[in-house]
């Protein structure tokens, strides 16, 4: 299962990012709590997906586990250390073909914020 988090594609099937014990602990967490957690993490470090890929991968796993149709998330924070309420989360369900293309681009080092925005989020359009 591929998951796009900001401008990094994670393979959630490669190895489970959480232990079975953690998975049981996280069972009670609802999607709203996971989204709040994501906003807090990206408020602290807007480049979390690059600076701490393990933590970002666990967040992607939690989002997908709570909402299986979602396979892409964007957490846009204006600056490091900002208020979590200023982080804008977005989510979508991308076709497997698009995720595959993004993964190949990511593997070649060609997937960046601009390329991901053009392919998925269209925040820079206009």
Walk me through what this model shows:
The protein is an alpha+beta fold and 126 residues long. It has one domain (2-121). Helices cover 48% and strands 14% of the residues. The protein is built from 6 helices and 4 strands; from the N terminus they run ββααααββαα. It has helices spanning 20-26, 31-44, 48-51, 53-66, 96-107, 113-121; strands at 2-5, 8-11, 72-76, 88-92. It has a 4-stranded mixed β-sheet with strand order 2-1-3-4, with helices on both faces. α2 runs antiparallel to α4. The longest helix has 14 residues, at 31-44. It is globular and about 35 Å long. The chain starts with a strand and ends in a 5-residue tail after the last helix. The relative contact order is 0.20.
How is the topology of this model organized?
Layout: E1 2-5, E2 8-11, H1 20-26, H2 31-44, H3 48-51, H4 53-66, E3 72-76, E4 88-92, H5 96-107, H6 113-121
Parallel strand pairs: 1-3
Antiparallel strand pairs: 1-2, 3-4
Helix pairs in contact: 2-4
Structure summarized in a few sentences:
With 126 residues, this protein is an alpha+beta fold. It has helices spanning 20-26, 31-44, 48-51, 53-66, 96-107, 113-121; strands at residues 2-5, 8-11, 72-76, 88-92.
């Amino acid at each position: 299962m591929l998951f796009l988090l900001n401008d990094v594609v994670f393979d959630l099937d490669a190895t489970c990012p959480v232990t079975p014990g953690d998975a049981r602990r996280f069972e009670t967490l609802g999607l709203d709590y996971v989204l709040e957690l994501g906003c807090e993490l990206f408020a602290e470090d807007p480049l979390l997906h690059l600076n701490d890929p393990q933590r970002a991968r666990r967040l992607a796993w939690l989002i997908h586990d709570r909402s299986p149709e979602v396979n892409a998330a964007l957490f846009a924070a204006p600056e490091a250390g900002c208020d979590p309420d200023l982080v804008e989360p977005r989510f979508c369900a991308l076709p497997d073909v698009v995720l595959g293309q993004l993964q190949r681009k990511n593997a070649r080092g060609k997937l960046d914020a601009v390329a991901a925005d053009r392919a998925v989020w269209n925040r820079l359009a206009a």
